[in-house]
Amino acid sequence: MKNEKFYVSYNTVHKLVKGLAQKIMKSDFDPDVIVAIGSGGFIPARIIKTFINRPIYAVGISYYGVDKKHKTHPTKIQWIDEVQEQLKGKKVLLIDEVDDTRATLGYCVRELLKYNPEEIAVLVLHNKLKEKDANFPVEIKRYFPALEIEDIWIKYPWDAEDIEDHTNREKAMLLNNG
Ligand code: G4P
Ligand code: MG
């Protein structure tokens, strides 16, 4: 699959999230709140709420400025004071779309841990198998990637300008790979 892009349809996203939700429900982790990392985590978070109905809090972290230039470190672009109050002593289901370098995710987890939640479980749709720029702190005991994939660019449906074409490309890709 060299130099290719990995297409993911809405249906696939839905199924991956459902699988994650089922894994969580079977485990002994009973979350109190969902925290979505924007913007990639927003749609997965809303889907997981269908299976695990908890309040969703949204945080925005970005490694890129509005000019699309890579910054030296991730920064908060949306961070609601309400989050701080709501996480104290709570079991948190943190969700994002992709674990790539782990820089953004790691930063977000460290910031959220400052609010003394009981636990944070990290859920992602895709974990890229590669050397990471950051690690999760030891406090993170549960990590649930729906799918582990090689280090290629993933095309998510919410970025598609032509969703039919996007969905067809996923179909073709899956057929090609048997
Ligand atoms: P990580 O901690 O989750 O690994 O994120 P990292 O800082 O490595 O990634 C920087 C940005 O690049 C993130 O977007 C992440 O979602 C995005 N990204 C990384 N790999 C892929 C990929 O294969 N496909 C797509 N579509 N995006 C990828 P962000 O700054 O959080 O912005 P947003 O898109 O979530 O709003
Ligand atoms: Mg993201």
Describe the structure.
There is one protein chain. The chain is an alpha/beta fold and 178 residues long. The protein has a single domain, classed as Rossmann fold (3-Layer(aba) Sandwich), CATH 3.40.50. 33% of the residues lie in helices and 31% in strands. The protein contains 5 helices and 8 strands, in the order E-H-E-H-E-E-H-E-H-E-E-E-H. It has helices spanning 10-26, 42-51, 81-87, 103-113, 163-176, and strands spanning 6-7, 33-38, 56-64, 70-78, 91-99, 119-128, 142-149, 154-155. Helix 1 (10-26) packs across helix 2 (42-51). The longest helix is centred in the N-terminal third of the chain and has 17 residues, at 10-26. The model has no long low-confidence stretch (mean pLDDT 92). Magnesium ion binds at residues 37, 40, 96-97.
Q: What is the chain-wise order of helices and strands? A: EHEHEEHEHEEEH
What is the 3D form? Answer: globular
- Structural class by sheet pairing and helices: alpha/beta
Query: How far from one another are the termini?
Result: 12 Å
- Please state how the strands of the largest beta sheet are arranged side by side: 4-3-2-5-6-7
CATH fold descriptor:
Rossmann fold
Mind describing the biggest β-sheet? 6 strands, mixed
Strand content: 25-35%
Total number of strands: 8
Assign the CATH class: Alpha Beta
Q: What is the percent of helical residues?
A: 25-40%
> Helix tally?
5
> Could you tell me the radius of gyration in angstroms?
16 Å
Low-confidence stretches: none
- What is the number of independent domains? 1
Bound small-molecule species: guanosine-5',3'-tetraphosphate, magnesium ion
Mean pLDDT: 92
